[in-house]
Batch of 3 targets.
Target 1
Amino acid sequence: MWPPPPTELPVRLHAALPDALRRPVRSAWADANRGGAAIHSFLEGPCLDAAGRLHVVDIPHGRVLRVEDWATVAEYGGWPNGMALAPDGAFVIADYRRGLLRLDPATGTPVPVLETVLSESFKGLNDVIVHPDGSILFTDQGQTGLHDPSGRVWRLHPDGRLDRLIANGPSPNGLALNRDATALYVAMTRSCEVWRFVLRRDAVVGKANLFHRIPAGTSGPDGMAVDAADRLWIANPGHGLVWGVDPHGIALFRLDCTPWGRMPTNCCLSADGRTLMITESDSGSILAAMLP
């Protein structure tokens, strides 16, 4: 028996990038990733700061923006993609061009954390999360895909030890932890899958399995978030949707973002955990959906 169709949840506009902050110019990042279009922005990496205020990154223009008042918290020569809050209130940024960075919102100056591995450059970092034990998990996606399944998932421990958890990913992108932080979800964009495996104290990964498969299309799963009910929310650019999946991998909910665009790139929970905040990068918008 196949499960019943997912329930539709309403989506609303929360905020839109002001015209004054839109920069419709070509960039090296857009040439490689958006067909050379002169895009105004590409919002990603939604993250709450220590005060519960929503922040996002703008990849091609190297910006970190606070959504509350659309203040530019940082602007630098990089391509920030994923962002997570560290226990001390700083942001950890997965920067496609510069590696793993740390940003103090008060100063707006990014500081390198890890730029290379044994002098070898990363393929291109994408997303990052912080484990309750203080370790940092991040994806090294680059231009990998079904033609080159060599994307990597790394774990940097507080003592500086670095684990390579996955080295055969067909475009590892978004990351999320289950509620007790024992299992890691990894969005494999080009194979339209979400993988799941148990996190051990050592670097051994066993029984990594396909947790959920989204419909095939022009782009697979991107950023993800887990709510208080241990449901996984998966941004799906290409289809313009966000999927809500139960802890067993069954799709329960479907959020349609296409009235604004087909590029919901990532999501996070609001401070009270009741609202899903979604970056829709076609329109430069932040969308919101109340969770049941």
Target 2
Amino acid sequence: MDRPTRRELARRVLDGYDSGPDATVRATARAVAKVDNAVAVVLVEGISDQIALETAAVGRGRDLEAERIVVMPIGGAHAIGRVLTNLGPLGTRVRLAGLYDLREEEVFRRGLVALQVGSPRTRTDLEQLGFYCCVNDLEEELIRAVGTAGVEALFDAQGDLRSFRSFQSQPAWRGRQPGAQLYRFVRSSSVRNLRYARLLVEAAVGRDTLPRPLDALLTAV
């Protein structure tokens, strides 16, 4: 597959989403502009999580915008306190929910406690509030859900398989577990990470293997 074709495929996958250095800032600002009319606000760490959740919703026949459910990328787990503070009284009038990575669980928990969004002490408590943990993060969840062969088939369809094979042959990655290789390749480019957030979710929906955190979060809202 030639480079212009690969670029066009990437453009189509990311249509409607921000990319670039200040992408999260712009995406957050757009979400904030919608919260006054929202019935639920879903806090996620970044744009790849937003893409994944909104793609999963479409795959399940949901229209989050029509349902007045706003997905807000906050720019990392450590922003949770600031975001909740900025929501102010609105945070008590809308349903709050969210998605976070395992390594950031304590950050999310402390942020929710500090802003008196419940008093969660355990992961079960967090889930009861509508906040779900990805182990270890959403990309790993999706790669497990789709499987090695399925992910490589996506790489092939997107013109990325040759690059992945080259990556696998690098001394630092030669002989490593396939899951680790797939994860690092997807995460090695911010644009690639955004692209495969959508593609992996679409593949998981097609296989009926959507990761539990996404599935449970959609059910909660």
Target 3
Amino acid sequence: MRAAAIALAIFSAGVAFPLSSPGAQARTAPSEKLRIDKTRIDTALKAMIADGRAAGTSALIWQDGREVYFGTAGMADREAKRPMRRDTIAQIYSMTKPVTGVALMQLWEAGKFRLDDPLSKYLPEYADMRVYAGKDAAGQPRYVAAERPITVRDILRHTAGFVYGAGPTPAHDAYVAADPLALTIPLAEASKRLAGVPLLFQPGTQWEYSIAVDVQAALVEKLSGQRFADYVRTHIFEPLKMTDTAWRQPDAKLPRFAAMNVKKDGELVQQDAAAAQTLNFRDHALTPGGFGLASTLDDYQRFARMLLNEGELDGARILKLSTIKLMATDQLDPAIKERAWLPGKGAVGFGFDFAVRKSPPQTPEENRGAVGEFFWDGAASTLFWIDPANKLTAVFFVQTMPYDGTLHRDFRAAVYARDYEGSAGD
């Protein structure tokens, strides 16, 4: 049950993305330099506490190669009267996904696979997939053969057709019964369980946020010959000196965890200490690619800075610039019209494990941001983005569930100003 609840939380919340074309990034320069207003951001963070949307908030912004903002408001743990601090550890849920994508694309750079290879070439369980095709006259579910194989590209851009949690179709029922994200099983078993669940649609025809990033993690294990967590630690975290980011945190660090807060009847209710550490995977076999990391502002900002800095940070080369541009380019064919809730995120498309902003904000209500931006968020309302046009990275931490997109709207407005419409040439 706990694994199902975690999966549902992830499904319902990792919902925030803008689109970006690296080609546009190279051509576009801001009409005038974006200047960070510390007072405006401080005020926004405090307002989130005052109006009851968050118990504690923190943010860290780098621009032009230097830190330009750090601030906190409220409590990491209200019951213990422990304020949000720079070293507070937060559960980042789906902000795990871009880390997994970077790991897989390192193996692509090493020539371990091609993007349009059938997934079944490496994970044979995905051969001969079935697709849910509605119900017949007697009300029984119909299934048809997949018209083409799922490709590695599909699992990077959420077009494989996978289900992700409970839902209205027999395919969703099959997913719940299979329980592919059970915490007691390893990634290889999770992948095999998922492969037995019918797809929701023909591969490549729709965008649907999914368990595909956990399949990416299983593929990393298969191609590298290492346990997924070991691969990520040795190829990403250690080179970037991300010393506080992990699926499994040591006991000594648990007092630094921020408590989780769940909104019930309009009020934030703090979860007990055990619940706040539920996703500390020390005692579980599963190391998911789509969620589960806990991190600090400084650690995750190092990951973001690496992405902005053309794949390298402080002498550690993680990816090539060309690979980052590929990941941060909209990968959705114009023919893919069904995109679930993605259009609600504004003028965006989707790359490889990132949303990418393709146009300036189209309405006053849309999140502020610049063309070329790529980003993702997490179920507990955390957020980060990379803005090449303004040479800026931002990381925002909070522990509010369910996901509250108004926090992102207000934080972005404080960073950019509410009337920001992008850069010259957008």
